[in-house]
Amino acid sequence: MSATTESGKVSARYDVSKRIAILGTIRTGFRAPTLAEQHYMP
Predict the structure, then answer these.
(1) What 3 state SS string does 22-40 have?
(2) 9 bridge partner residues
(3) What are phi and psi of 37, to 5 degrees?
């Protein structure tokens, strides 16, 4: 059995000057739960 994964990433860079830059990143991720995780009752 294997888990399904989906993920994405978006990144951007803005150069304010030759020495200064602004960086940003957004990530998402998803992993399908295993059968044990789906049926676990705490």
Answers:
(1) EEEEEEEEEECCCHHHHCC
(2) 27
(3) -70, -35
Burial per residue of 12-41, b for 16 or more beta-carbon CB atoms within 10 angstroms, e otherwise: eeeeeeeeeeeeeeeeeeeeeeeeeeeeee
pLDDT tens for 23-42 read: 999 888 877 888 888 887 76
- Name every residue whose Cβ is closer than 8 Å to that of residue 17 and which is 6 or more positions away in sequence: none
Residue 27: name the closest of 15, 6, 9 by CA.
9
pTM for the model = 0.44
